[in-house]
Amino acid sequence: MHIINANGLRMHIRVDGAPDGFPVLFSNSLGTDFRVWDALLPHMPDGLQFIRYDTRGHGLTDAPDAPYFMGDLVQDAAAILDALSIKGALMVGLSIGGMIAQGLAAERPDLLKGVVLMDTAAKIGNEQIWAERVQAVRDGGIVSLEESILERWFSKPFHENNADELTGWRHMLCRTPVEGYVGCSQAIAETDLYDSTARLTLPTLAIAGSEDGSTPPDLVAETANLIAGSRFEVIRKAGHLPCVEQPLETAALITSFMQENGFV
Predict the structure, then answer these.
(1) Which of 4, 25, 72, 122 could make an S-S bridge to 193, C-beta 3.0–4.6 Å?
(2) In this structure, how many other beta carbons lie within 10 angstroms of the beta carbon of residue 190?
(3) Residue 1 pLDDT > 90, yes or no?
């Protein structure tokens, strides 16, 4: 277990791979922790340094009282890289993690050489949708929404063929601190990155799961189209978490993107 003090929080991070390798920072989705990347890493190229962290309010990172703001989450990611004396990383962000990546690329371009935006968008949903979700969690806990969330996370075949693994993801979701889930939901609700993302010029790969019920491929493609020169790919037979359902294909796309841009 590796806990660091960053941006006023005790943050849970993990660093794997080559200590002096090209750095790749991973940012997890709402309702998961950094274990969401476990299946992906074994398929990534050798010689990379992998930095994973639990987003504010998730996993073993502190869960301060809500509300949170996207600026808080961006500063958390920046503080981790600063604490590790890393500049020029690739950031791979999933869902809210992809929003954080967009924000970090805009606010601290010195820290990133490229971004992978996975199942995310410049704006996700609207304030009413997120307010209703926050109220539901406040009233009945995350368990009151678990079925609808898991339906969006995974494709139908995954639900049919991976009952035991699905139980693990259900536990991860429902054991997320309420303040963390609510706080990050509020951060998503108030975030609109269209203008800042449209000004980005760094290499960008956008990935969408074909069966994603949270950020459908058309929404991800719309965000990718904001960034000149970006690459957009769809992973078949995957929902909101392609790194879980299709880790080999996801890793292959990220690897080819890194090769195209001289990161490996």
Answers:
(1) 122
(2) 13
(3) no
